[in-house]
Amino acid sequence: MVLENYLKVQQKIKMLTKNNVLILPVSKTATLEQMEELYKNGIRTFAENRVEGFLQKHKSFPNCSWHMIGNIQSRKVKDLVGNFSLIHSLHREKIALEIDKHSRGKEIITNCLVQVNISKEDSKSGLYKNEVEDFLIFLSKLPGVNVRGLMTMAPFTENPEEVRYVFKELRMLRDELQNKGFYNLKELSMGMSNDYLVAVEEGATIVRIGSEIFR
Ligand SMILES: *Cc1c(COP(=O)(O)O)cnc(C)c1O
To answer: Which of 179, 70, 86, 174 is nearest to 132 (CA)?
Structure first.
């Protein structure tokens, strides 16, 4: 079941683009049995929104890479660093300083995306568009932090066309910043179960899929 769901997502994306899009199964609500079905078929990348989820699951699924997509508390950063191959949800200087400190302590560099709040909903985390450039300049001075791109969450909607502008604006912001010399902003993490096809049309390189896979 779960594998079929994953393959359906993969198929739909292939019909839209020749580009490589990483399908990130969001396992925060998944059972170990559901994850096992993907794991035994070679899927080795999962996303969690809390460090606890990772701590519960990673022993069952060795040799995977894990992505952090949820809000980060500063006292959890020490458990995060070294365990996640990509942090999607960086948007606070205080957290960046913690990530940098623990990364340097472990002699590693932590890959991060900057979370942007395009829709300006109060319930969403992330920087406003006009704050991103200064934050990138701040991050560029932290040797333990490597910025790979931008992430956003669109408002929930039944009709994904209504949130196309969110994905388009994130891509345009990325392009603008690249033109200003931030060349390392390759990744665009955008699109979830109900809107990932629109996000892919607008240039997503990573889609975060929970309920559409782990139903
Ligand atoms: C839960 C979650 C997702 C996946 O949501 P679905 O609608 O279940 O696909 C994606 N991104 C973030 C940040 C999440 O917390």
So the answer is: 174
DSSP-derived letter for residue 62 is T
Name the residue ranges covered by the structural domains of the chain.
2-209
pLDDT tens-digit map of 158-178: 999 999 999 999 999 999 999
Ligand 1: centre distance to CA 181 (Å): 31
Query: Residue 36 class from Cβ within 10 Å (0-12 exposed, 13-18 middle, 19+ buried)?
Result: middle
> Would you state the structure tokens that stand for residue 188, as one six-digit string?
């665009």
CA of 107 to the centre of ligand 1 (A): 31
* Fold for the domain defined by 2-209: TIM Barrel (3.20.20)
Q: Sheet harboring 145-151: ordered strands across?
A: 22-25, 206-209, 187-189, 145-151, 110-115, 86-90, 65-68, 45-48
Output the pLDDT for position 141.
Answer: 98
Asked if 194 and 209 count as a contact pair (C-beta separation under 8 A), the reply is no
Are 29 and 214 contacting, i.e. CB atoms less than 8 angstroms apart? yes
Q: What is the pTM for the complete model shown? A: 0.97
